[in-house]
Every structure is written in C-alpha cells, then in structure tokens.
C-alpha cells in the first residue's frame, strides 16, 4: 500500500486555481477575526486596569469576532479537504484526540467570551478564553505543519501505533509549528491595533477611548513587529527555497510598513490615517496568506501533482457557492453599514 493514499479518483470538482483562490480568500477572512481573539483577549486582560475602555471595547467585540472567525474558517477547511484530503486527514488522525478536543475547548472558550462580554467574571472568563484559544491556535499550526510533512508520518506512526492503530495522543510540538503560531501572533497584535484605530476614529465622541487607544496603537504594532521579526527570522530560512523572492520581500516588508503607518496614525489620529493603517494591515494578512499557501503547495508538490488530477467540472455547485458567498458578503456589508450609521449617530 503506497504511504500516501492516491488522490480522489473522482478528480477535482473545478480547476485548482479557483480552489486555491477561494482557500486563500477564506483563510484571509479567518485571519482577520482570528487575529482579534488571538491577541485581543490577552491585551484586554492585561490592560483591564490601566486602559479599561480599550479592554471593554475589545471584550465587547469578541462574540462577533468569534462568530465571523469560526464561520470564515470553514471556507479554507472545505477547500483544504478538497485539494489535499490524503494529507490533511492522516496528519489530524495522528493527533486525533488533540484535534477532537478543539471542538469542546472552543465551545468553552466561546461561552467564556460571551460571559465576559455580558460582564460576568469579565477578566477571569477572558483569561480562560485567551488560554484555550491560544492552545487551539497551536493545534491548527501543528495540524497544518504536519499536513505538509508526510515524511514525518512513518516515525510518528511507529511511535504511536503499538497495536497497528494509532492511539491519537501524538502532540506535534515541532519548532516549525511554534514559529508559525509566532508569526500569526505577531500579525495579530497589528490587527488589534488597526481595529482599535478604526474603532476610535469611528466613535468620534468617545474621548476616553481616544485617550486610551491612540497612544496604544503604535505600541501594539511594535510588539507585533518584535514577535513577527523574531519568529520570521527563525522561520524564513526554513522556507527560503520554497518561496519566491518577491513573496519573501512582500511578506517581510509588509509588517514594518504597517508599523510605520501606526506611528503616522499616532502623529495624525484621524479617520484617513486609521483607514490607511487598516488597509496596510490587510496587506500584511493577504501577503502572508498567499505566501503560506505557496509554501504548502510547494512542500506537497513532490507527493502529488494536482495539475494531473482530472477536473469533473461541477460548475453548478460552484455557482451556488459563489452566490451564497456574495449574499453573505452583502449581508455583512449591510450589517457593517448599519453599525457605522448607529455608531456615528
Ligand atoms: C471551528 C473553528 C475553526 C475553523 C473551522 C478553522 C479553520 C482553519 C483552517 C482551515 C486553517 C488552515 C487554512 C489553510 O491551510 O489555508 C486554519 C488555520 C489556522 N487557524 Fe483556524 N479555524 C478555527 C478556529 C481557530 C481558532 C479558535 C484559532 C485560535 C487562535 C485558530 C487559529 C488558527 C491558526 C493560528 C491557523 C494557522 C495555522 C498555520 O498554518 O500555522 N483557528 N484555521
């Protein structure tokens, strides 16, 4: 039996270019909201006494961020299973119990976030949610790293399958998985900074939030730059041969550029500079989402040639998917517009 199962004999539903584009787009949306809870919750807990309005605003935003972030995560999950099922499933089966635990832990974290947002045990619940969500974040990094490391499976299998069946308690605590989470955490501090800048400039009348948030934004970007810089300097050499030079420059330069824009916002705090900062932070997430996908595809290239898999052309379900996505984006736009009008009023 070949070590890697053969690709799905039914072939790809549509050409892989569409699948990769939607996977990266879905992951970008997941990153936007996931970043808010990955860095936003620890920031809200640490600043609860010194910057109570910032802390309160962040905690109040978490139920929305989780709802959107989890749903957005389903999109890349679907396309990951369409493109690379024979890699994703074995990688998660080897870590089965930790992977299964994601759901109950997520439910507890979700409940804790709601308790905090409704003012019950605000700091304790936020701290519990922050710890659980960071652990889940690591599980995703471990799963995604092992998905692209089929060469590690036999060793893990042999150490985890005493009677021929894996016990599922393998924890893939690899350096690469930790560095990937470090990169994500670095970007997340920037995303929280951009969110606070945008929120502060939208809520023009909230002078206490302005006092607390405006000086904090460049500090969050500096912390993010530091974490991203350290993780990136250790991670980048390991993928240098799998990532085109231009993408290395783009992902590497995007974070310091957003950092500089954060200081510009600090010097001239107004809607225009907050929007520029948010767009540049969006660029950080998009460039890293694309780079991550290129690395994943390059790492799995020696094991499967997706270009050789037949395409069965299921355009009907694709059109339904795109239709539902556009309606969803429309509803999201209407919700944001309503919130904007209410907040401005
Ligand atoms: C049920 C909820 C969730 C779903 C469906 C989901 C889905 C996904 C998917 C599919 C990916 C990989 C995307 C790709 O390869 O393109 C991913 C990556 C990631 N997710 Fe989520 N996610 C969920 C919850 C979370 C939570 C609670 C966290 C906590 C922080 C999180 C943090 C991450 C991180 C850090 C990555 C990047 C992993 C890496 O490549 O190193 N996710 N998520």
Judging by the overall fold, what is the CATH architecture of the largest domain?
Answer: Up-down Bundle
Treating each run of at least 4 consecutive H or I residues as one helix, how many helices? 11
Structural class: mainly alpha
Total DSSP E strands: 0
Give the helices and strands as they follow along the chain.
HHHHHHHHHHH
Query: Tell me, what is the CATH class of the largest domain?
Result: Mainly Alpha
Largest sheet: none
> Helicity range of the residues?
over 70%
Please sum up the structure shown.
By secondary structure, the chain is mainly α. It has two domains: 16-300, Up-down Bundle (Formate dehydrogenase/DMSO reductase fold); 313-345. The chain has helices at 16-46, 52-83, 85-94, 96-117, 122-147, 153-160, 175-202, 207-239, 245-267, 271-300, 315-344.
Note down, in words, how this protein is organized.
This protein has eleven helices and no strands. With 345 residues, it is an all-alpha fold. The protein folds into two domains: 285 residues, Formate dehydrogenase/DMSO reductase fold, CATH 1.20.1630; 33 residues. Helix 2 packs antiparallel against helix 4, helix 4 packs antiparallel against helix 5 and helix 7 runs antiparallel to helix 10. The radius of gyration is 21 Å and the shape is globular. The N and C termini lie far apart (66 Å). 36% of the residues are buried. The chain binds protoporphyrin IX containing FE.
């Amino acid at each position: 039996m070949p070590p890697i199962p053969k690709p799905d004999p039914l072939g790809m539903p549509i050409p892989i270019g569409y699948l990769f584009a939607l996977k990266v787009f879905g992951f970008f949306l997941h990153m936007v909201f996931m970043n808010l809870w990955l860095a936003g919750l620890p920031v809200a807990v640490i600043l609860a006494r010194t910057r109570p309005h910032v802390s309160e605003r962040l905690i109040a935003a978490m139920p929305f961020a989780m709802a959107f972030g989890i749903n957005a995560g389903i999109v890349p999950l679907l396309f990951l299973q369409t493109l690379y099922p024979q890699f994703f499933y074995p990688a998660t089966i080897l870590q089965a119990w930790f992977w299964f635990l994601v759901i109950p832990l997520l439910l507890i974290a979700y409940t804790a976030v709601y308790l905090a947002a409704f003012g019950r045990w605000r700091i304790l619940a936020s701290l519990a949610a922050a710890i659980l969500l960071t652990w889940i974040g690591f599980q995703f990094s471990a799963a995604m790293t092992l998905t692209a490391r089929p060469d590690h499976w036999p060793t893990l299998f042999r150490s985890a399958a005493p009677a021929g069946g894996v016990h599922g308690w393998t924890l893939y605590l690899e350096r690469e998985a930790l560095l990937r989470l470090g990169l994500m955490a670095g970007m997340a501090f920037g995303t929280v900074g951009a969110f606070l800048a945008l929120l502060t400039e939208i809520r023009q009348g909230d002078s206490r939030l302005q006092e607390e948030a405006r000086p904090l934004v460049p500090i969050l970007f500096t912390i993010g730059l530091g974490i991203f810089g350290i993780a990136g300097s250790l991670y980048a050499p390991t993928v240098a041969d799998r990532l085109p030079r231009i993408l290395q420059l783009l992902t590497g330069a995007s974070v310091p550029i957003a950092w500089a824009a954060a200081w510009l916002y600090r010097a001239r705090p107004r809607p225009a500079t907050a929007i520029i900062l948010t767009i540049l932070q969006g660029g950080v997430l998009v460039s890293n989402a694309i780079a991550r996908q290129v690395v994943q595809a390059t790492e799995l290239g020696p094991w499967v040639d997706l270009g050789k898999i037949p395409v069965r052309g299921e355009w009907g379900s694709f059109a339904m998917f795109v239709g539902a996505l556009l309606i969803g984006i429309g509803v999201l736009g209407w919700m944001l517009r309503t919130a904007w009008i209410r907040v401005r009023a």
